Amino acid sequence: MHPSEDKAAARESVQKTDASPNLSGLDLQTWLEVLSALPGGPVTESDILAWVEGPLRKFFPFEKFLGAYGGLSGGMIRMRSLVTSGYPQEFLSTLEHVFDVTSRGCFSWWTSKRKAFFLDQTGARDEQGVQIVPSRRELEELERFALGAVAAHGVIDPYAKAGTYISFAGVPRTRYKRTLAALDLIAPVLHSLFMATKQPEKAGVDLTPLTDRQRELIDLALEGLSDKAIARRLSISDHTVGNHFRAIYAQLGISKRSQLIALLK
After folding, report:
1. What is the SS3 assignment for 170?
2. What are the residues facing 99 on neighbouring strands?
3. In what order do the strands lie in the sheet containing 76-85?
4. Per the CB 3.0–4.6 Å rule, which of 28, 64, 83, 116 could disulfide with 180?
């Protein structure tokens, strides 16, 4: 969708839901002004960052921003692009580009429920106040990197098995429900912007003909695991792993692991 179409669709959405209880307290006039400042034409990741750090801040106060686009298959997340603002390099160096979705409690909950959540040192919860169990790592990151309160959301495309995840740190601790309601508006717009950055690119490798198991093997191969290590991880035989990779190579028109890595990196 073209950014100008995003603006029109977002405005229509606000008009239709103006009376919705979960939008009470939001400055919708400012939101419309923020939408009018969306980048037009070809969109770059720099454009996304400029919109987030500039116009969006007038509607949604925060200290740090993280936006990521990636794929989800076989319980593994593979991050394909990352845009951040305000985070120290020490924090960024701890982020894995491929990781098990269950390693982060709040993130795992989000991939399942696809709803915004709020996290601080007292715990995590959704807009209705339902408690979420964060991982120890998520709680430690709050203190180690002085993140304050974090609000996160995103959009997942179940057909492409990919999506956009956005996280804002240093958001107001009070009126968290209003913060999460604002994220319901922001998440689809940022997702559209991230998708717009993909449009000028050459179409990527089509993995849709592959099975979930084959995609899972690809994710593990991208982590650098050998056939034997993959077999141990998945509790299957080396022979089965080899058969899967031969089928993958045939489908993608390649013949060896190095070509697969080069194709998908």
Report:
1. coil
2. 77
3. 98-100, 76-85, 64-73, 162-169, 150-157, 117-120, 123-126, 131-132
4. 116
Q: What are phi and psi of 225, to 5 degrees?
A: -75, 145
CA distance 79 to 204: 14
Relative orientation angle of helices 3-16 and 28-36, to the nearest 10 degrees:
170
Closest CA to 252 of 195, 214, 196: 214
Question: Consecutive 10-residue runs of the chain (265 residues): their mean pLDDT?
Answer: 48 42 79 94 92 96 96 84 94 90 94 96 95 96 96 89 94 94 96 80 66 88 90 92 93 88 80
pTM: 0.72
170: left (phi over 0), alpha (psi -120 to 50) or beta: left
Measured CA to CA, the distance from residue 118 to residue 132 in angstroms comes to: 9
pLDDT at 20: 43
Dist. CA 115–CA 71, nearest whole Å: 18
Beta strands in the chain (DSSP E): 64-73, 76-85, 98-100, 117-120, 123-126, 131-132, 150-157, 162-169
Distance of alpha carbon 75 from alpha carbon 63, whole angstroms: 31
CA–CA gap between residue 37 and residue 205 (Å, rounded) = 33
Phi, psi of 25 (to 5 degrees): 95, -10
The DSSP 8-state label assigned to residue 39 in this structure reads -
Q: What is the pLDDT of residue 22?
A: 60
